[in-house]
Amino acid sequence: MAAAAERTGSGDAGLRRRLLLLLWLPLLAWEAGAEQMEEYLKREHSLTMPYQGVGTGSSSLWELMGNAMVMTQFVRLTPDIQSKQGAVWNRVPCYLRDWEMQVHFKIHGQGKKNLNGDGFAIWYAKDRMQPGPVFGSKDTFIGLGVFVDTYPNEEKQQEAQKKRYSSGNQRVFPYVSAMVTNGSLVYDHERDGRPTELGGCTAIVRNLEHDTFLVIRYVKRRLTVLLDIDGKHEWRDCVDIPGVHLPRGYFFGISSATGDLSDNHDIISLKTYQLTVDRTMEEEKRDKEVFLPVVDNMKLPGMATPMEPMSGLALFLIVFFSLVAIVFAIVVGVIVYNKWQERSRKHFY
């Protein structure tokens, strides 16, 4: 009997390992096809059970804010109670050049569809532990925000005002979106961040029996968000934005808020990996360090567009043709002056 029980236990463990392998195989295959890279788990930027690095002490790696609580199997950002805010922020700034964050989360509650709220946000921001109106954090942040929004504020406001809401612009909620700002843009929570959204997708993530995962990847100035939320152990694209320049030394964090509507927002694990990728000389020149976030082909207010330095040939041609124009203007001036003097003498005699 003991042997049979042991075999059963080992069989269950093997099955769990195989299921976990199946879950990550599609992502590994996607990595192999996209880039040749290696990844290393960075424990100082990761949050896993039994959550020993979470606390208020100076030696802790993660700090709780608001109504967030550490439970046995998850960190609960907000309970299914109205008007709550909670967050957990990494104390250690991230200086990784290329990184990936894998978030295992669960959103659940008693509210019916569109009678729940509000969602949570994942941050890579300059300032940490700053409460505010955007999923429990401030709306004038500097950095990257990825939002899992479960309530359509704009649509409900239009309905309350009995205005027609254009179905062509309508988004199906829950909705995942991304935003990058240098502090001059404000996330408009009343419009669900639509004016400043870089990209997004619908993500049905509430009250599911299976596990739900979100991956944020930042490699070679390319921002990608992937989801595994269908219980099929398959990753699907949500956001893919090239030309995203993020400074190093910002902080990771996750925050959430409830209002008149509520949900449980639980973070089961957050794993951050350092990615090592090969770069060409051209990519090294292109991926220079920045001091404020910027997105190519998207002018952020307060950001002056840097001028490309002129080459030596261009500078020589500008000087040469300028001198030619000056000499030509002098010659023309001398000819006109002589003609005028000649006419003056004839008129005098």
TrEMBL record:
SUPFAM superfamilies in alphabetical order: Concanavalin A-like lectins/glucanases
GO CC terms in record: COPII-coated ER to Golgi transport vesicle; endoplasmic reticulum membrane; endoplasmic reticulum-Golgi intermediate compartment; Golgi membrane
Domain L-type lectin-like: from-to ranges: 39-275
A GO molecular-function annotation: metal ion binding
TM region positions: 313-337
Lineage top rank: taxon: Eukaryota
UniProt main location, coarse: membrane
GO-annotated biological processes: endoplasmic reticulum to Golgi vesicle-mediated transport; protein transport
Pfam families named in the record: Lectin_leg-like (PF03388)
Keyword annotations: Disulfide bond, Glycoprotein, Golgi apparatus, Lectin, Membrane, Metal-binding, Signal, Transmembrane, Transmembrane helix
Subcellular location: Endomembrane system; Golgi apparatus membrane
Signal peptide (residue range): 1-34
Entries under PANTHER family matching the protein: VESICULAR MANNOSE-BINDING LECTIN, VIP36-LIKE PROTEIN
Annotated protein name in UniProt: Lectin, mannose binding 2 like
Species this protein is from: Naja naja
Lineage, broadest ranks: Eukaryota, Metazoa, Chordata, Craniata, Vertebrata
